[in-house]
Design goal:
single chain; alpha/beta; Uracil-DNA Glycosylase, subunit E; six-stranded mixed beta sheet; 9 helices; 6 strands; 45% helix; disordered C terminus
Length: 211
């Protein structure tokens, strides 16, 4: 059994915290395992719990639209959560639940080795900033800003923005979220393309002339 298969099986059968008792299914990450972009949310919701897949409810539909707005398909990126099981009633995950589940995320990061990690929502942002040894303030102050970070030995550009679920409840946040994707994330991708290139991607003459 390969590393990915072992990881998925461990997540699906995990009983390390109390969330296993109320879940329908644990939710491993999904998408391209060779992607340069990883999106990390907070925890599965009801639809995710039913289907065993991340971001498949209304917030997932918005995330898919945002990913497409920067020129990618959902299957081109890797999508996961800090916590792999749904907290009852969609409550916030506790510190103990996050701490227990973090090793799974670290293994995902190690296997994917992304160049960019986008934290979706304050819990994901606070956790990822902590893993990177960076000080987290709040989403209003730090959303859309790019930080050089190293997480589990993997050097990444780390960016936080609002969770798509929050944007569905508060239209003003949706405008900010769209701007973060279409300006900050898009520009970051363009910059990396021009410097190091993305994995499995050939540089063309247009990459050089567009500098």
């Amino acid at each position: 059994m390969g590393e990915w298969s072992r990881l998925i099986e461990e997540i699906k059968n995990c009983r390390k915290c109390g969330l296993y008792a109320s879940r329908k299914q644990a939710v491993p990450g999904e998408g391209s395992r060779d992607s340069d972009i990883m999106f990390v949310g907070e925890a599965p919701g009801a639809k995710e719990d039913e289907q065993g897949r991340p971001f498949v409810g209304p917030a997932g539909k918005l995330l898919t639209q945002l990913i497409e707005s920067i020129g990618y398909r959902r299957e081109d990126v890797y999508i996961t959560n800090i916590v792999k099981c749904r907290p009852p009633g969609n409550r916030d995950p506790t510190e103990d639940e996050i701490e227990t589940c973090i090793p799974y995320l670290l293994r995902e990061i190690d296997l994917v080795r992304p160049k960019i990690i986008v934290a979706l929502g304050r819990h994901a942002a606070r956790t990822l900033f902590s893993l990177a040894g960076l000080k987290w303030r709040n989403m209003k102050a730090l959303h859309g800003r790019v930080f050089d970070a190293e997480i589990n030995g993997v050097k990444v550009k780390l960016l936080a923005t609002y969770h798509p679920a929050a944007a569905l409840y508060y239209p003003k946040l949706k405008n900010i979220l769209e701007k973060d994707f279409n300006e900050q994330i898009r520009n970051l991708i363009s910059k990396i393309r021009k410097t190091a290139g993305f994995k499995g991607e050939q540089r063309t003459l247009l990459d050089y002339f567009s500098k």
